[in-house]
What we know:
This protein is an alpha/beta fold. It has one domain: 3-Layer(aba) Sandwich (Alkaline Phosphatase, subunit A). Helices cover 34% and strands 15% of the residues. It contains 9 helices and 10 strands. It has a 6-stranded mixed sheet with strand order 3-2-8-1-9-10, sandwiched between helices. A two-stranded antiparallel ribbon has the order 4-5.
Amino acid sequence: MYIIVNNLLSVGENTFPNFCPLLSGYPEEDFKHLCAPTDDHSLDLCPLIYRRFDEANYLTALVEDSPGFTAFNYMRTGFVHQPVDFYSRPLFLAASDYGLLPSLPVFRAEHIDCLGQMTNDEIIISYLESAVAFAHQNSSPLFALSWSTTLPHDNLNYVQLSDDAYSKFILRLEEKGYLENTILFFMGDHGYRYGPTRETLIGYFEDKLPNLWIRVPPRLQEKYPLWQKALQINSE
């Protein structure tokens, strides 16, 4: 399995989402050429890695929270057709009472941090964990991308509120044996960009150095020792 988990995201106003070139394997300019606009301006025909995993009989998952700020939908159409097997967007659209103006998403509440008695991150974790369990029970490989936006978007201090949920989630994955055959990425696309923290020296560097942790299971470390060595060298 491949699981990418993130707990800090603010998407820029680029021609394509930050993730698109990264999840295609192509340089940005090549991706722009290959991802020609469709009549409905969707990303459905873009050569994203989900298709390759699907062709290789992987299950696929895309789990994001705030519908208007998701990586593929902010100021753009996104996907018209469901791009993966496990797709949380309909859930969060319904729960957020989502509406559309001609070009920009609008919410009755600017940010929705909780749905019922669960935080957005707890719902993301629950959804993702269900996909992982389903794949494990059916002996199917899984490529999953989970991206959290709402909680830390406007206040850096809120990040700590999700620490317990994510630490317990990763421990559960380990206890259930799900990480024995999984490469886990835990990352952010950038640090905090606004407010007084950003104006400090530490804030300046924190903005440029988002977190990135990669865990390769022990058996793969033994089978491909150069992978772990390369990761350790690049971490420096």
